[in-house]
Amino acid sequence: MTTRALPLYGFDSDALASNALEWFASSVARWVIKNEPAAQSVLFAVGRVVRDGRERAEYAFVLCEDRAPGWPTVSSPKLNAMLGDGRSKTAVTRAIRALYGCDEVDLGHEPGQPFYRAFARFARDPRPAESPFASAFAPVTLFSRVAYEPESWEARLSDFGIEPKTLAIVLSPECEEPAKKPVSDDPREVYNPLELLEMIQSGQEISYSIRRAEELSAALVAFIERPGDEALRAIRARLGVPEPDAKP
Amino acid sequence: MTEFNYYAMQWYGRTSAEQREHCLRWYVEPAARLIFRAVPEAQSVVLAISQYWCDEANDATHLSLYASPERAPQWPKLLDTALFDGETYERNAVSENIHTVTGGGFGDSNYGNIVAFGSQCRKDCHQEMSTKEAYRPWAVVRRTAEDDCETKVVGKTLQRGFEDNFNVGFSRIGEGEAEDFYEGPGPRLQDLSRETLRAYMQRGEAARRIRALEDELRKLVTEMTMADSAAALLRMYEELSEAIAEANAALEASEMTR
Description:
The complex is a heterodimer of chains A (248) and B (258).
Chain A: E1 3-5, H1 13-35, E2 41-51, E3 54-64, H2 91-100, E4 104-106, H3 114-119, E5 127-128, H4 133-136, E6 137-147, H5 153-157, E7 160-166, H6 193-201, H7 206-225, H8 229-239
Parallel strand pairs in A: 1-4, 2-5
Antiparallel strand pairs in A: 2-3, 2-6, 6-7
Chain B: H1 16-38, E1 44-52, E2 60-68, H2 78-81, H3 93-102, H4 112-117, H5 131-134, E3 136-143, E4 149-153, H6 194-223, H7 229-257
Antiparallel strand pairs in B: 1-2, 1-3, 3-4
Helix pairs in contact in B: 1-3, 6-7
């Protein structure tokens, strides 16, 4: 069993979680969906597990034959692959071997370390390592298989992709990091550069946002003054929302 | 509930060097391992980088991966000998394996790539230049036993003003006015006045509120029927009007501080 430590960076627990989901869980799910034809979805779950008297936040991937499986139901035992507790070694371990050249990826699982900071809040209370899976782990994200339209840009790169759905809810509020409180009227003393620039960058094209909002506002006024299907269609069109009866 | 990122377009890190390390460990090396598995003749994968000044954002930094049959590929000869050369967006072993790692993304050319790699790029490149002139190799990943890899960084810092400077890619911050286009990285955050910084943040907050309302409205009209639409849309109209007024005020404030 080989383990490789890979860096998770992020200025807060949300950024750390995004990093892990964006670059680790998504890549593993995409590899599994591509290479395991029977898998229709991959669940990424986390648990607070006690091993040798020490608590760790651990990850697990569960392969499912359904696109929208219930938790903790996994429809077919043969597809049920888990990591972190050594119970099975299937497509997920092959994915991790192929992507990261090891059997397990160490993302910093102990209290205070990156993975723990990112995900312990979404896990249940700490459980002994030998606990049943469903009682120790909780779902964070479901990655479901999507097939691309043949003429799409994505289809020219790959036939399949993944569609993520966030399932995480805070089950361990004691593991949440406290929100930052302004201690100064100089933003530089409250936020780090990356946070600041993310906030500033959001306003880069504000004139465009205002113009679009004004056009949307005009469509809403038209509906308020003269309600009807036509006005509702105009709002949907402005927002890029397809009509309910439109064919996909 | 927090909305997480799932599409790999962002390099994480508190410094440019950390972001480059992030790119190597989570993007370049996983893609190289998959390429080595899929293409027996591939012996190395090269990450090449470039920064353009006449691109869509007046500053864009691009990353390209090339698979080579040689363990020690030479630049720019690699451009003629690379496997699947010239097929970046077509389906081949390079692009397909990049897709497996990232879902199709190649980083954020107009922001994150600049923060991470702008300092490592040649100065003053533009789209009239050839790839040979504009790009330079930054890292070589070589095949090792058992389909694993080893990486050697060959790039170096050429534009120190971009290193650890998060104030980049803001050429459109003045909505396209010629004088707002930077000729290089923007002033570092510590050199902006407190008022300018606060006004920029206020503007960002106002823009985010408009986008959140658009998202809410999108969800509303997807599910709504005529019967329950009037009251909900009136409420959205009122909130949107308030957000537009706030955004106009924020825009004006930010222009006054410049």
